[in-house]
Amino acid sequence: MGCKHYRRKVKLEANCCKTIFPCRFCHDESCDHGIVRHETKNMLCMLCMTLQPAAKTCCKCGVDVAAYYCDKCKLWDDDPKKSIYHCDDCGICRQGKGLNDDYFHCKKCNICMVMGMKGKHRCIERNLESDCPICGEYMFTSTTTVVFMQCGHCIHKLCYSAYIQTSYQCPTCLKSLGDMSEYFARLDRELVRQPMPPEYEKYVSHIFCNDCEKKSSAKYHFFYHKCTDCGSYNTTVLKTENTEETAQDDESRNPPPSSTSTCPTQSSTSPQADEASTSNGSTTTNALEQHSTNLEMDHPMTDAQEPSSAVVGNDTVPPTSVLGNNNDVTPSFSSSSSPGSTSNNPSVPHQSASSHEHCHHHNHHHNHHHQHNNN
After folding, report:
1. Alpha-carbon distance 321 to 326, whole Å?
2. 317, 332 in Cβ contact below 8 A?
3. Segment (H or E) for 228
4. By three-state DSSP, how is residue 339 classified?
5. Which of 121, 210, 294, 351 is the most exposed place for a label (fewest CB within 10 A)?
């Protein structure tokens, strides 16, 4: 008995519209507004069809309408295979045996996680109170499994599995999702085997490394720019410049000082000679000034040119592990496995089947899954 979301012998009366529904999900699917589960006051026993105050046992037929009942969340679940507990800090029920048993609550992240992640995860304040970066669903109360990536950010497990087929960067912070050293070494070999055309030798790209968060310079390439600090190709190009044109511009802006040669002059007691000397000096100075002006006119400054170029679910949510939410039970969280390899950009270039398979296995070996489920 029950519905596609829950196994139970009871229906609830939504306090907002005073209508009977099998569960809160059925209400939200049928109405243009969301139910406030904590405001539910009445239930309808499906055995005797009696409307009565919400409880675990029917007041008329005396039958337990569910194996698990939470009076705070107004959650009934009669699935004997499902372990559920209520977390007061989360304010909802989650799947699992309970706090300090198989889950713990991280105060800073404000989420329940599997015990294996205690002291081993990167805390991000109120981490799960955000939307999935792929599908946009609010993850704190999601009944879909959620995982923690190596950088500490969260994502739905299904969204993560699809996303890493085309990218190795966290969709939130762009850091590499796993150990990409083998992939970066392969790029090193490819760049040596297929160098850039000679006409691009004069171009340099200024880059920002998404992994070590440092700025550096690298030879211009159509796709790949290697960080000189950590060796990662997970970089973002800030700007590209032509070093020859830049050097010419600098020289035009700051010309070298002109050298002045002093020639000994013959002394002349003749006023005509003195006048001629003065006149010649003036002519020479004017000629130099004119020459300097002509140089500036002949060599105008030009701008440098760039080449074209663990999962949490609601109602009963388990703490951290691979977050998978069963209906209302919100799952807890787990850390994710590493994705396959990609390039500087979020999209990954095509790889051979063997190399992709190897990277995928390598990443799974280095990442720890953390799963979280909500009810």
Report:
1. 14
2. yes
3. none
4. coil
5. 294
- Residue 173 token pair: 């912070």
pTM above 0.85, yes or no: no
C-alpha span between 150 and 192 (Å, rounded): 31
* Cα 6 to Cα 314: distance, rounded to the nearest angstrom: 12
How far is the C-alpha of 236 from the C-alpha of 345, rounded, in Å? 8
196-215: per-residue pLDDT in tens?
999 998 999 999 999 999 99
What residues are paired with 217 via a beta bridge? 206
Strand partners, 331: 373
CA distance 56 to 158: 34
Cα distances from 37 to residues 27, 89, 93, 304, 307, in angstroms, run 11, 17, 12, 63, 59
Between β-strands 75-77 and 84-87, what pairing exists: parallel, antiparallel or unpaired? unpaired
32 contacts 68 by C-beta, under 8 angstroms: no
Total residue length of the chain: 375
Question: Which ranges of the chain would DSSP assign to H, the alpha helix?
Answer: 24-30, 157-163, 181-193, 243-253, 271-298, 353-366
Q: Which amino acid is at 121?
A: H
d(CA 366, CA 22): 43
pLDDT tens digits for 138-164?
Answer: 888 887 888 888 888 999 999 999 999
The crossing angle, in degrees rounded to 10, of helices 181-193 and 353-366 is 150
- Cα(68)–Cα(359) distance, rounded to whole angstroms? 43
How far apart CA 133 and CA 150 sit, in angstroms, is 15
